[in-house]
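---------- Forwarded message ----------

FYI, see the L-ribulokinase (Putative) record below. Original note from H. follows.
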Amino acid sequence: MSRLDSLKQGQTALGVEFGSTRIKSVLIDANNFEVLASGSFEWDNQLVNGIWTYSLDDVWKGLQASYTDLKAEVKDKYDFKLSKIGQIGISAMMHGYLVFDQADKQLAEFRTWRNAITEQAAGELSKLFNFNIPQRWCIAHLYQAILNQEKSVSQIDFMTTLAGYVHWRLTGKKVTGIGDASGIFPIDSNSKDYDQKKLDQFSDLDGVEKQPWDIKRILPKVLLAGQNAGQLTKEGSLLIDPSGDLQDGSVFCPPEGDAGTGMVATNSVNQRSGNVSAGTSIFSMVVLEHPLKKVYPEVDVVSTPTGDDVAMIHANNATSDINAWMHLFEEFLVLAGKKLDKETVFRSLFFSALTDADADAGNLLTYGYYSGENITGLKEGRPLLVRSPESKFTIANLMRAQILSVFGALKIGMDILKKEEVKIDRLTGHGGLFKTPRVAQQILADVLETPISVTENAAEGGAWGIAILAAYVDKASELSLAEYLKSKVFSASSTITIEPNYDDLPGTHKFMDRYQKGLDIEQAAIEHTEVD
């Protein structure tokens, strides 16, 4: 079947991911999973009254702009007006705080994963559950709001994630995928639902039992990959395509978080497989064979889209500072009267980190901390470049230091998994950091001292992953998700694997030692540098 025939017959799947800096839409052929068209919209969080947030108006503005781009590409490439889509999936940044009352009115600003403002709540819940509750989890935000005696808490009728919110508005269904749900509240991997014992423990807390709502009732229903999660309503179709061209009735898969869609996009849903996703934040996901022996504040236990336990190492800061330096170099090129497209600038600077830099980055030290970092125990962030008079301050070393620093907090968590003797057969990188071939892949292999694979769809990320999950709804009765990915989606996929460069390991170790020893410098910057 030709691409045009797939479009005409609606044998397509649309994946939309609300990332931290970009809303991306990807339309795939549901028969061979090839990308037919894509669109995007750039956005960014805002620090408002000390809270990292996004306006929900921008959610819809961005979705419509992204879809309009995609629709225009379909018209340009195939001379076809897109009006019918078979399946749709929504993915987004996990965690945070989105609450609504009975009239569907938003009760508080959207508090994203980036906020480190729930230390008391996360600590008390972790102790109560004997289970790590990170500060960014929805339940930590809810309990902190209770501890803070926020008046709106008693009015809550529904609490969800960004993916769950968009899905709800498009379908009318208050549901979410189990991977996304595992960042809301702990999951029982046997029942494939919220952990009932922990729900009861939470309900018995003094501040909670006084509330007029029941915790499970206000949470979205948990669904597994492959389940039908509703259909696009007429109102929902206009939210995507205000022109009215898009027909209602498209089938939805359960909405998922960016962690789950990353696992799908890298074929990492089997035990002993894992992936590293690197964008504004960075996290690794490793599917566990056995429960961890201890509870670690650096390690989250979440779920695959089918409900298996996953060890997640999540660091809040990754590429924001790299992007800032790239903008600086682009400004210089403009001043110098030179014209280079952004991709060429990135490629040139990234490759210098691999070919011209010292392995230890010339004794430079960088922290790309735009916000607090839970793994390293810092409540706020200050981007820093630290060097001594003897440091080799070159562009190549600066870029290598930046990329090494992206992996600094992640390595602390991954070292814990090594001590736990967690077995990893395959680790796959994806996300924007891996778009430039070989560079971040090689440096990550050196940092973790393990082979790193990258697939041909590495840069497509979660939007492609949720499109795959959307297409899977039609096949779930025939194949497990793992079988579906292996035999259908990735059967002919090209994968490049890079081994650690053992000559560079001593220098890489030296940088990572410097990174951990220098955290006091970052703390001092927080204490002595005010933020407007």
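H. also flagged this: Residues 56-78 form the longest helix (23 residues).
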